[in-house]
Amino acid sequence: MTDSAKKILISGGTGFVGSAIVRALAEKHPNFVIDVIDQSPPRPEHVLPERTTYMQADITSTETLTKAFEAVKPDIVVHAAGIVPDLAERWGRRLEQEVWKINFEGTQNMLDVSKHSGVGAFIYTSTCCVVIDDTRTDHLNINEDRPLSFRSTIYGESKAAAEALVLKTSSSKMLTCALRPSVLCGPGDYQLVPSIHACIAKGETPFLIGNGLNLWDVTYVDNVADAHVLAIENLLTSRTAAGEAFFIQNNEPIVFRDSCLAIWAHFGHVPPFEMHIPKSLAYFAGLACETVTWLMGTTTTLSRGSVRDACATRYASGNKAKEILGYEARIGIEEAIRLSCEDYASRLGVKLPMFNSGSRQKQ
């Protein structure tokens, strides 16, 4: 495609995923003019290219969005802004109003202002959680034909509703598509590696719920950024991605326990023993914790939802993204985990020991 000076506006561009998209786009298309809107200014852990312009804006405020769009006059919008509840809030309902306001109403605002501003293409950073947060069933090698789940978590439900709105909006005047990344790792990760690493200090590493052999997808953030660049290129050329959603992952499903063991090993920790906790026992313990926290007005990381989460098999097919977008992961899962641990260790101010390991992946 001709690398003309397209104007790209990226919401949430100072965050973990958004900043990776900015870096990938600036590298692949140096002539593109990239503007970032976010509530928070750029941070050291989420580096932006020097020529990127940052503007403070709130996606829940059409007034601030309109001002930003009038200043930028973007040709293309990448909507990566949103809120992901932390683990203690993931399976509860306490933040439901806030999550829906940001993830759904914020997306609605972005679409409305984009249409009014004459934006030609709109790429939405969705999530695999629009399907897999329904833990009543396992999700084995699922594809995009699997229906959205509107009965899961506040995060999954809000993102599913937003994704449906985005795809419904697609037209010849403003093409839209949605990308569904899996659980992410990489430099600047604030959830996956930190939460698994924290199990060391809490003495939780020997314990696993169920057989520990369930497979799941983990994706390196730069791979997800590549997928966004490909989506932009597609909507500017063949347009075959218009109105479509795509699962984006490393396409290397990994055993859940192995991913934890690999992260701990990078930090020099090996569980001293291994104890399997029956899922049914853990489920009732989760129910007890939920009851106590409901009575006390606090939060808990152990709940019925988190137990199902830890035992679920959840990985998706990457065929559609490969066929239409040409997406393939550049960074493999072992390197992805290593780079993620090195980054987190740097932020903690610790030095990692030498590490050698393999993992049980889906054959």
Task: Report on the architecture of this protein.
This protein has 363 residues and is α/β, with parallel strands linked by helices. It has a domain at 7-184 and 218-250 and 316-330: Rossmann fold, CATH 3.40.50.720. The protein is 42% helix and 16% strand. It has helices at 16-28, 62-72, 96-116, 129-132, 154-169, 192-201, 221-236, 256-266, 279-296, 304-311, 319-325, 333-348; strands at 7-11, 33-38, 53-56, 76-79, 121-125, 139-142, 175-181, 183-185, 207-209, 215-216, 218-220, 244-248, 254-255, 275-277, 314-316. A seven-stranded parallel sheet has the order 3-2-1-4-5-7-12, with helices on both faces. Strand 4 (76-79), helix 3 (96-116) and strand 5 (121-125) form a beta-alpha-beta unit. It is globular. The two termini are 36 Å apart.
What topology emerges from the helices and strands here?
Blueprint: E1 7-11, H1 16-28, E2 33-38, E3 53-56, H2 62-72, E4 76-79, H3 96-116, E5 121-125, H4 129-132, E6 139-142, H5 154-169, E7 175-181, E8 183-185, H6 192-201, E9 207-209, E10 215-216, E11 218-220, H7 221-236, E12 244-248, E13 254-255, H8 256-266, E14 275-277, H9 279-296, H10 304-311, E15 314-316, H11 319-325, H12 333-348
Parallel strand pairs: 1-2, 1-4, 2-3, 4-5, 5-7, 6-15, 7-12, 8-11, 9-14
Antiparallel strand pairs: 10-13
Q: Say how many strands there are.
A: 15
Q: In percent terms, what proportion of residues is strand?
A: 15-25%
The N- and C-terminal alpha carbons lie at a distance of 36 Å
Structural class: alpha/beta
Helicity, in percent? 40-55%
Choose one word for the global shape.
globular
Strand order of the largest sheet: 3-2-1-4-5-7-12
CATH superfamily of the domain at 7-184 and 218-250 and 316-330: NAD(P)-binding Rossmann-like Domain
The count of helical stretches stands at 12
Mean pLDDT: 93
Largest sheet report: 7 strands, parallel
CATH fold node name of the domain at 7-184 and 218-250 and 316-330:
Rossmann fold
Query: Measured on Cα atoms, how large is the radius of gyration?
Result: 20 Å
Query: Unreliable segments (pLDDT under 50, ≥5 consecutive)?
Result: none
CATH class of the domain at 7-184 and 218-250 and 316-330: Alpha Beta
SSE string, helices as H and strands as E: EHEEHEHEHEHEEHEEEHEEHEHHEHH
The CATH architecture of the domain at 7-184 and 218-250 and 316-330 is 3-Layer(aba) Sandwich
InterPro entries: 3Beta_OHSteriod_DH/Estase, Lipid_A_modif_metabolic_enz, NAD(P)-bd_dom_sf
Domain 3-beta hydroxysteroid dehydrogenase/isomerase: 9-272
Family: Belongs to the 3-beta-HSD family.
Protein name: Sterol-4-alpha-carboxylate 3-dehydrogenase, decarboxylating
